Amino acid sequence: MQPIAQLEGQFTDVDGRYAIVVGRFNHHVVDSLVEGVVDSLMRHGVSEENIELIHVPGAWELPLAVKRVLQVSRPDAVVALGAVIRGGTPHFEYVAGNCNSSLSSLQLEFATPIANGVLTVNSIDQAVERAGTKAGNKGTEAAMAAMEMVSLFKRLGGEA
């Protein structure tokens, strides 16, 4: 019996163009996510010239900006970053749900990886934990996912 063919991305073949689209709202948390993404991309050999950083007001605006970036810049991958922190009203559910759903749809529409680094948390403490303290840096994790997908797409070949 022959072994099953397996394909996966490698972190040694991640060269490409990356767009980081960042919601400024809760910037005290999101700034650390951005640092994690940029550091991770550069540590894996992505040149600074191949990283574009785009700021938008908040998570609600992320999908529209990501769509425009995909239409105009056509990067190999997008990393979407933001922080939606639950409050005392249902606003959290609308913003978080719409943002995540729209990013997922855009990824399929444009056949381009969109790494979702949008924190959806119950408290500021949880956000801080996920932005580089106890729970690691979710920006770094999003960058790793984006790079792995870029590498995998190179291995899969073909047109998007």
Characterise this structure.
The protein is an alpha/beta fold and 160 residues long. It has a single domain, classed as Rossmann fold. 46% of the residues lie in helices and 18% in strands. The protein has a four-stranded parallel sheet, sandwiched between helices. α3 links the parallel β3 and β4. α1 crosses α5 and α2 runs parallel beside α3. The longest helix has 20 residues. The mean pLDDT is 91.
Q: What's this entry about, in short?
A:
The protein is α/β, with parallel strands linked by helices and 160 residues long.
Please name the defining characteristics of this protein:
160 residues; alpha/beta; Rossmann fold; four-stranded parallel β-sheet; 5 helices; 4 strands; 46% helix; globular; 6,7-dimethyl-8-ribityllumazine synthase activity
Count of folded domains: 1
Judged by helices, strands and strand pairing, the structural class is alpha/beta
CATH architecture label name: 3-Layer(aba) Sandwich
The tally of beta strands, per DSSP, is 4
CATH first level? Alpha Beta
Low-confidence stretches: none
Topology-level CATH name: Rossmann fold
Q: What level of helicity do the residues show?
A: 40-55%
InterPro entries: LS, LS/RS, LS/RS_sf
Binding site for 5-amino-6-(D-ribitylamino)uracil: 25, 59-61, 83-85, 116
Pfam family, one: DMRL_synthase
GO molecular function: 6,7-dimethyl-8-ribityllumazine synthase activity
